[in-house]
Structure formats: C-alpha cells, structure tokens
Amino acid sequence: MVGRRSGSVPLRNRIKLIRELGRTAGVSHWLAHDVRDGRSLYALQVSAGTGGGTRRAHQVAVRYLKQCVYLQSVDPARFPASVGAITAGGDVWLVEERPTGRTLGDFVAHNRVSRPEAATIGLALLRTLSLAHSKGIVRGFIAPEQVWIERPGAVTLSGSACGTLLASGCVRSLPRARHVAPEISSHAPLDPASDMWAFGRILAFLLAGGVNPSGASAARDPVVRLVRGLMREEKDARPSATAARRALLRVLAEDGRVAAARTRPTIPPRPAFPPA
Q1: Which one-letter DSSP state was computed for residue 260?
Q2: What residues contact residue 71 under an 8 Å CB cut-off, 6+ apart?
C-alpha cells in the first residue's frame, strides 16, 4: 500500500465503497466514503495481476502520488487531492477526494448535449490537459467517469495514472482497442498525442453517448471530422491541442458564443515530470 494520509488506520480499512459509477474498458470507478474522517472519495480500480505486474503497479502508484501532489499545488480546481493508492489482491486502487459536480457520464445520461455545449466542455477539458502536459504529465486514458463538471466551463480530471497502468504491461488483460489509444494496446510510450486520442473519444461520447464517429452520415459534421482526426491510429496524424481548440472555437463562433470561451492560461513551459 502507498498512502499519504493513512494515519494509524491502513487506507484499505478506511474505504467504504458506496456505488459503482461505471466500468469502462475494464476499469471500475467508484464513489466511496472515508470511515475515519467522513470525506467523500473517488476510487479507481484496475486489475494488475500478480508477481511482476503488482511490482510495476506499485511503481506507477508511487509516481502517481507525486504527480497528484504537484498538480494539486498547481491548480486544485482542476486536479483533486490524492488520498492514497493500494495494491492488493491483484488490484490497484487509486483513491482521491471526490471532486465537486457530477461526472460526464451522469451528465450525458440525463442531458442531450448540443454541439456548442460539447465544444464548451471540450475546451475546458483541453485547458486541463494542456496544463498537465506543460508539467510533463500525460494521462493516455480518459473515461467519462473521470471527468467531473461543476459547470460547462469548469472541468476536474481524476485518476491521472490509469493510462500509465494500462500501458505499463502490469495489467492482466487490456481493454478492447476501441476504448484505448493504440499506444496503450502496443505498450508504447504515452505522449500528448495519446491524450488527444482519449480527448477525441470523450468528444464522441459527449455528442452521442458513445457514438462511433465512422458513420458516413456524419461526414459533414465539423466536430465529427475533428473526432475522426483525433482518433487516428497514427499519432503523428492526430490534430494537436491547438488545432482541436481552434476547431471547437469555430463551433462556438457559429453559435455566437465566442465570448463564452475562456482564453488559454499562460503556462510555464518547463515540465516538472520527465517521462518515466
């Protein structure tokens, strides 16, 4: 077990699982409760197997905790505080304080999302990803249950190490290819282009609850064209975050909502976390 604030009670004995938020690509997302201090928690569960898989998972968990501490100090509104990480019974658990708002999965389940709304949420998610990238931190995997929205222009991202766990070779069986970037399936190094693939999948989910953007009838839709580009197998062919941002701003411009789009924050270019 790895934990920052476990105190005298082991973290695994403090967590009470309340409800499974969803299961995406073999990764489970839970609402949980800290029985010691009453905090609401978010817990992410990934199966890592035994032996070498568990050892590698432990290494990823240690790095994850360091990244969480750093990102929380940079922008606590976009990155939740980590409570700890557990490797037990062949599973890895990443535990964080529950962000405010609702998950993207819950939002889409109860709302029909318009193109401008999808663009607004997408721009907020891009800002959060770009901030992480500027610090040398790449996710590689984003599930709707990891995206928390308090309002359309404010996004918090939980479970930052999930993609690293999937790509590290410590997971027993990888998710189906349509759920993860090709780099994860091939155990290749993750980079910002991997996050662009994951971002494209989130955009597709926003627009139609998980639609496959390959249908011919959607070819004329500019957002669907962006999704298709983002989800290209060749990572060098994927649009950059800057290109994706321009495309989404055009959607808002067509709807007369440019004023609602926030400008990109000034971010120091020096990464704090070089590649593992």
Answers
A1: G
A2: 78, 79, 131, 132, 135, 137, 160
d(CA 201, CA 197): 7
Task: Return the residue matching tokens 């249908």.
Answer: 215
30 three-class SS: strand
3-state SS record for 140-191: CCCCHHHEEEEECCEEEECCCCHHHHHHCCCCCCCCCHHHCCHHHHCCCCCC
Predicted model pTM:
0.82
pLDDT in 10s for each residue of the chain, 276 residues: 444 343 334 567 888 899 999 887 668 899 999 998 899 999 988 876 655 566 777 777 777 888 888 888 889 889 999 888 887 777 788 899 999 999 999 999 888 888 889 999 999 999 999 999 998 888 888 999 999 998 767 899 998 877 777 777 666 555 555 678 888 878 788 899 999 999 999 998 888 644 455 555 566 677 888 998 999 999 899 999 999 999 999 989 987 755 444 445 444 445 555 555
Whether the CB-CB separation of 248 and 119 falls below 8 Å is answered with yes
Q: Answer for the pair 55, 132: CB distance below 8 angstroms, yes or no.
A: no
